[in-house]
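> run fold Thioredoxin-like fold domain-containing protein
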Amino acid sequence: MSKPEKVDLKILGRVRHLIPNNFIIERIKKHEVQKNTGLVKTIELRSSKRFTLEQNDKYDEFCDVLDSFTFGNDLEVIKQFDNFKETIKPKIAKGSTFGVVDGVESIDLNTLQTKKGSFRTIQDKTNLIVFWSSLVPKSRRALEQLNQMLKQNQDLKLQIKPVAISLDGDFNNLRSYFRDNKITEFEHYRFSLGWDSSNEFQKALELNYSPKIVVVGKDNYVVDVTTKSKKIENIINTYFKLAESVEESEDIQKPKDIIEKETYKQIKTTLIQTIANQLSQNNKLEKSDFFKLNLIKSHKISHDGTQELVERSQLHVAYDVSVQSEQAIVKLLNELKTQLGNNHIQIQKQLVKDTNGIVKKISDAFQDALKQNNKVVSDYTIKTESFNYVNEKGVFQQDVSQINKKGIQNLTFQEYQIIQSQVEPIFKKYQEEIDESDEEHDHDSEQQLDRDIVNNHINQLTDTLRSGLQLTVGQRFQAIQHYHKFGKDQQEVIEHKENEILIIFYWNNNKESDRLIPTIIKFLLANEDSFKDKVRFVALSQHRFDHYQHYFSKNEGIEEVIDFYFPTEENQADLVQYNVTQFPHFVVVNKIGNISVLSGQVEDLESLIEHKLEEGVDNLKQIVNLSEEKYNQIVQFLNSDALTNLAQLNNKRQFSLNITFIEFQCGENRTRLAPILNYTIREGKEKYFETYLKLLNKVNQFQVNKTTQKTFNLLFPGKACKLCQNELNEQTPQYYSPFSDAFYCVKCAEVFDAKAIGNNKLRVKDNLIFFNAPLVDKSVLNDIDVNRLGNNLKVKKGDPYSQRHAIDCNGCDNEIRGFRYIVLNCLPGKLTDMALVDFCQDCFNQIRQGGPHLEKIVKRTSMYGYNPSMLLLRIPFYMGYYEY
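> ok
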């Protein structure tokens, strides 16, 4: 009785006519044992050839038909054919035709402008094509290394055509990179859409990973594809010497082992019953060690379904292990040879790495640099205590965090630069070495463990070096060097002057900085006279001036209001000194030269400066490091009956209050900086706060960061809808535009034309405030933060727009689509920490109608002080989190 036909062979037989006749299909039975996964048995189908890019439509047809036959089968069968599709799909690999690159635009390095078109290789020349992205460090490094190689080898460059094709979706990133890096040995292109999963060429070359470096011969066949720039010169020279056509790398017609049937069975039995268990129980191998055993039996499947044996393999071995595990591997291999015999083991890959050795070399280099500069590393602790006023309970809640660090005491700016210049090339060298240790992706997780060990160690040493230089709030401002002013070449030292408030604004031409600059300009112009000789505002740029030429030509004249400075070198030490990890970043220095603010955001710069101007120099000089006795007195006061003075303000929407202590301890030496008092209070409510502050200041002087939140009140209800004149009253839900001072009924305000474009979709085009009448809590009409209203931004004609807001709803955690509703009340003026409170259309409907989920929405947002009477600002289109 004949055996029933296997399911996979049956399905293959039904689609075989859609596969070209010259494609050889193999059915491969594989027994695989890995250190981490144990024994896995699989059956694979593999094709000797692939559909070409020109045959992509035929490949799609094949996949559609195949999917119809696999539908409803076991997941293992579906997975088997998904993998088969991967072996037969169009792919640009060694030996294939390169084809045409569509969807690209050429880049002029002189003007940094683009021109749309396509790219073809030059038929009578060898082409070197680098696919890369400025956002991927490994990718940038490969391009820069190849550019340097060609610069030093002009003879080679004359024989080839070097081309770089970028995958950057945002041309601004690429433009910035080219301003700072001269990659002149290449002709440059860019995919107009960046990485595009629908681009057939990108899929065929698997450009979701970069870099990909392709050498294309004179006959337009791919000589090789690699990720390693260091291989390229050898690949090209070898091709020149051979001067013959490239064989297909994936042609599986090469002779394979067919060992005796009984021998194969014996190896398989030993592998399953003995070796798999031995490997799983082996505890001598490191976590990052890779060890794999394969046993393969393969048949060629003809068009009529008959099978021909093409491989019955020996036991294949592949490993990539640490030097510490080398003896364990030798022992393991000897055991395999004893069990199976020398002739039945075939080692296909053997790599021994020394990750711990690299870590030691890095540590030794770091210690040598310290020794040369007479510096040592010390252990120290940073303890931060925050006392946050909890409005609901009327008490302070204490939060303590402690960080144990290593640092270099009394490190000067110049010493930091010297040590950093000595160790950075060594760090970079070993990072590259471990990053490019093995090009194959058969054990990415193990490779990543090795990378993490090296990179984490480098990060620890870098942090140790930086921590010796970093300053914090309460410490003295240190002069900033190596910057030049806009329009001047001469370097200036940025120093603090007695009695002057200094504001350092670290910026870059990104969306976050762009959002702040117009506000800063308006603020500086409005206070030009009052700030003279009292406040200095300086903008320090992340990159050199060349990087921003387009920005300043587009925004001509802003340098007359803001003093822009540019670094003479990239990644300057002041970024470390003032803990600049993102842009924008603010440093505010008070009248006596102490740092008051180090932050990526300042809630209300105008209010903060107003308070700093009010501070007296004599009072500031009394603010000194804190003794243990004074510390205890302050803590005792925070828990005293004086809290009753805050009872009139026992409301989240009126104020927030925080007191912070920072303590440094190195050995027996302990320093507690002057305490920091941070508070935000609504305009007009300061008088209720003054009594408490006077009592607090009697205990000790504080560094104070005060924000007075400007507010406005609303009249409610409206009398009639501006458009239809229907009557409005206290019982009527209604909308209001604070920008045109007009009320609207719900029916008119919610007219939305889905077929129209941009703001024409709306009958009322302003951002509108919704009153959820009748209002149970009428206090929501008063003390509304001015900054909550935004700027009533509208979509400009021709600009892209979307109702997908890229924001999660606070009521349900779903992404906000359609209208976005921002709560206008809640916490006082928070642009940091908890930020805005947003609702989606569904949650808005629940709030308006008192739906079944309203209780859940209120519970989820109680931490923000939300209640359903609060006013909601309706935003139609997404322009940014704070842009509306």
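Residues 201 and 434 are 30 Å apart (CA to CA).
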